[in-house]
Amino acid sequence: MRAIAVALALFAAPVAAQNAFPSRPIQIVNPYPAGGATDLLTRALAAIMAERLGQPMVVVNRDGAAGAVGTAQVARATPDGHMLAFAPALVVSVLPVTQPGAGYASDALRPVCQTFSNAQAILVRADSPLRSLADLVAANRAAAGGLAYGTLGIASIPHLAMLQWLGAAGMEMPHIPYRGDQPVITEVLAGRIPVGAVVLASASGRSDMRLLAVFDTARNPGFPDVPTAIEQGFDVAPTSFGGVFAPRGVSDERVAVLEAACLAAAQSESYRTAAQRALQPEAYFANAAVFGERLARDVAEKAVLLRTIRPAE
């Protein structure tokens, strides 16, 4: 009997080791270049998650096609939880629609933990006569052809945020796409366009511009004097939220392990400090269930907005 028990123990040992999770380093893919705000948050989160999981977490920057290249790599990965993505919701709510050849569908990833929420903002020059969204609405309706606004590109989150707000305002404005927030700001400051819509963090530390509104459910701690669009009578709060995703086929048990580590990391002092520097709101994190519900709403809302974009845009 003793010999049988020993044999069973020897057999069970490799099986247990095989089922342990994680059993090797985890790759977390950031589908954007190194050095950006998202990359800094990825690295801050990965460092704490690694401590919780007992395995290294290797951050891999796999940029290209507005985030579709890195996202597709994770979507196609073996669904064992050892490859994850740190990305905004747009990689599943926007890119599969705007890039049909991206190589993955909107349900290719499953949410693990929301870890950031980037507000958007409408800005003008500091000397602009426009001081509120009401001023902007009045000026746009009075201008022949409307006032032009710039964003970092067609179907970008600032562009879609503007479309959502314009729908609530019941009007249109000509859209001029650029290749980033900074070119938009440059054009506004030069007076070549009157209005810009950018990611809020891009306006940090600037005194040469005025923010008319922030798109979020509450004022941002970094801009406490700037009212939200909701405060100004427009019930819209489009943000660029996101966090950690796993391939769709990863088991519930493994997602639960990752979720616990992710939530602990997102609420750690070191990540909170990084989030504060990135102008994150107080409520930037959420568990898998809440993240998933928000993601489902975003997929539905973006589908409607994307259908409103004319080919000329």
Keyword list:
single chain; alpha/beta; D-Maltodextrin-Binding Protein, domain 2; 5-stranded mixed β-sheet; 11 helices; 10 strands; elongated
CATH architecture of the largest domain, by name, is 3-Layer(aba) Sandwich
Oligomer: single chain
> pLDDT average, as an integer?
91
Q: In the CATH scheme, what's the topology name of the largest domain?
A: D-Maltodextrin-Binding Protein, domain 2
Look at the helices and sheets and give the structural class. alpha/beta
Counting DSSP E segments of at least 2 residues, the number of strands comes to: 10
Portion in helices: 40-55%
* C-alpha termini separation: 77 Å
SSE topology string: HEHEHEHHEEHEHEHEEEHHH
**Beta-strand residue fraction:** 15-25%
Please tell me what the overall shape is. Answer: elongated
Could you give me the name of the CATH homologous superfamily of the largest domain? Bordetella uptake gene, domain 1
Q: What is the CATH first-level class name of the largest domain? A: Alpha Beta
Query: Regions with pLDDT < 50 over 5+ consecutive residues?
Result: 3-18
Query: How many structurally independent domains?
Result: 2
Q: Give the strand line-up of the largest sheet.
A: 2-1-3-10-4
Describe the protein's architecture and organization.
By secondary structure, this protein is of the alpha/beta class. The chain folds into 2 domains: 24-118 and 239-307, Bordetella uptake gene, domain 1 (D-Maltodextrin-Binding Protein, domain 2); 120-215, Periplasmic binding protein-like II (D-Maltodextrin-Binding Protein, domain 2, 3-Layer(aba) Sandwich). Helix content is 41%, strand content 19%. The strands form 2 sheets. It has a 5-stranded mixed β-sheet with strand order 2-1-3-10-4, sandwiched between helices. The protein has a 5-stranded mixed β-sheet with strand order 7-6-8-5-9. The protein is elongated, with a radius of gyration of 22 Å. The relative contact order is 0.18.
